[in-house]
Amino acid sequence: MTMRVIPTQVHAVLDYATGGALVAAPRLLGLGDSTAGRVLNLMGGTATAASLFTDYELGFVKVLPMRAHLALDAASGALLAASPWLFGFARGGTRHWLPHVLVGATEILAAATTKTR
Fold first, then answer.
1. Is residue 3 part of a domain?
2. Does 90 fall in a domain?
3. Which helix (H) or strand (E) holds 108?
4. What would the pLDDT profile of 63-82 be if each residue is shown by its tens digit?
5. Burial code of 1-35, b = ≥16 C-beta within 10 A, e = fewer?
6. Which of 38, 52, 54, 110, by CA, is between 20 and 30 Å from 93?
7. What is the torsion angle, in degrees rounded to the nearest 10, for the CA atoms of residue 103, residue 106, residue 110 and residue 113?
8. Cα 5 to Cα 11, 16, 71, 111, distances in angstroms
9. Terminal CA-CA length for the chain
10. Nearest C-alpha neighbor of 40 from the set 95, 108, 115, 114
11. Is residue 94 part of a domain?
12. CA of 46: how far to CAs of 29, 53, 72, 117, in Å?
């Protein structure tokens, strides 16, 4: 039994909201141009770009199949969640690692529970 319950249209809205939130987060959290902030900006921009090219309701250039998009979401979520320790900025305090872990875990969950069509 699969637990794919999130429609692709809802996933698309979540993608753009997440991308925007990741880009805005460094300023909102006072991370500035730190490594933690740069990772959030990079991941937000990448998520938005992937969304623009995904073959779903809110994609603009529909060349990336939904299954591939979901695989990218899961991989980027894992990278984002692990990034504070991979890049050594976890020791900066909770605001330097918690957003990465929460959003990364949410991306993995969304990838696992979104319908493929």
1. no
2. yes
3. helix 94-113
4. 999 999 999 999 999 999 99
5. eeeeebebeebbebbeebbeebbebbeebebeeee
6. 110
7. 170
8. 10, 19, 17, 11
9. 17
10. 95
11. yes
12. 20, 11, 10, 22
**Segments forming the whole domain that contains residue 102:** 8-113
> Cα separation of 77 and 60, whole Å?
23
Does the pTM exceed 0.70? yes
| Tokens, residue 39 | 């990772």
Number of Cβ within 10 Å of residue 37's Cβ equals 18
Q: Tokens at residue 41, please? A: 């900006």
As a whole number, the mean pLDDT across the chain is 97
pLDDT, one tens digit per residue, over 81-99 is 999 999 999 999 999 999 9
Question: What residues form DSSP beta bridges with 114?
Answer: 6
Domain count, the chain: 1
